[in-house]
Amino acid sequence: MFDEEHMEKYADVLLWALRTARKKPLGKDGIVMIRYDGAAVRIAEILQGKLLRRGINPVLRAGMTPAMEKNFYEKSRERQLVFEPPGEKELYRRLNGAIYLNAPESLTHLANVNPAKIGKAALARKSLRDILDKREEAGRFGWTLCLFPTLELAKQAGLSLDRYEGQVVKACYLDSDDPVREWKDIYGRAKAIKARLNRLDVKTLHVESAHTDLKVTPGDRRKWVGMTGHNIPSFEIFLSPDWRGTEGVYFADQPSFRSGNYVQGVTLHFRNGSVVRARAEKGERFLQKQLRLDPGAARVGEFSLTDKRFSRIDRFMASTLYDENYGGLYGNCHVAVGASYSDTYNGDPSRLTGRLKERLGLNDSAIHWDLVNTEQKRVTAVLHSGKRMVLYENGEFAL
């Protein structure tokens, strides 16, 4: 199902996405890192060739195999967990772009690894992520990522490999004669919705479904963003709210895999912006540990809505990238516990100091974990004027 023609089209879509994600054009002699898993080596080769023909310098980085990753967490001493290879920061300070090709051969190999060790390694790499965040805020860096179908993903999603590949082809519009044109069209339609949302003076958002009754405070100096090229596929429109105004109950009916752990049926109770009680039908012990990873891990860093008119994803895909963009019958909303996105600030993100982020209620954490609700729902905006209006209902923006 997923043949050479599909991979050529996929590569073209990813290069469009990378250009779209950047605030400034990607000129010749730029440096773009392609980080790929083994199963995605062919599309990495295609991307390398396309970048070289454009005069851009690709830096190729193979990801660890499941055995390598398990070795790293099980056998590393503390100093090895936080080890940073010489030259790593220098490379990150010069990167102009990155394309991440995720093709996992296992989703459960880290299930018995101590989550504290995974968290410690993530905290150590946060300094590298901060470098790229600052470069992106200044317009000197852009990134995109995608998923390449594997037998493991298909198995965990309960699909044959052919059907899983078919979902990827459909979701990314690779069955079109010109997928890039399709993505440009979606980009334009989403831009119009964001413009209408950003003209509203919203005080609070109220999310109601069968198992969710949550109030979210967008906060000052915010804007709705999304469909920026960062993820392929991506249909979500989101903002990073003022975490301090989160109140109520949120339920994630969509399962998720994280660090080798399967988590299902998450219910979070928020009070004064933080999770005060958390339950999960499966994976509760792991959930509790993740929420205690650092002070920001139990706070909201993102609130997102996906319009089913854009998304053709209608199955659980065992991948957050796809599951957070689920369309189906009722679209989805998701909240992410953990880090906020600075590009939802409506000023110059490069001027966002730590103190300003704190004042605005933009959350900081080493994690960002999307938890997805696909139930039929209504999202009502309460404006500062006191007026109430339905923003989203039955899986569609109602503007």
Describe what is shown at a glance:
This protein is α+β, with helices and mostly antiparallel strands. 33% of the residues lie in helices and 26% in strands. The strands form 3 sheets. Strands 5, 6, 9, 10, 11, 12, 16, 17 and 18 form a 9-stranded antiparallel beta sheet that branches. It has a 5-stranded antiparallel beta sheet with strand order 7-8-13-14-15, covered by helices on one side. The protein has a 4-stranded parallel beta sheet with strand order 2-1-3-4, covered by helices on one side.
Helix-strand blueprint:
Blueprint: H1 4-21, E1 31-36, H2 41-53, E2 57-62, H3 66-75, H4 78-81, H5 88-92, E3 97-102, H6 115-137, E4 142-147, H7 151-157, H8 161-171, H9 179-198, E5 202-208, E6 213-216, E7 225-226, E8 236-239, E9 247-252, E10 256-258, E11 261-271, E12 274-282, H10 284-291, E13 300-306, H11 320-323, E14 332-338, H12 354-360, E15 368-373, E16 378-383, E17 388-393, E18 396-397
Parallel strand pairs: 1-2, 1-3, 3-4
Antiparallel strand pairs: 5-6, 5-16, 6-9, 7-8, 8-13, 9-11, 10-11, 11-12, 13-14, 14-15, 16-17, 17-18
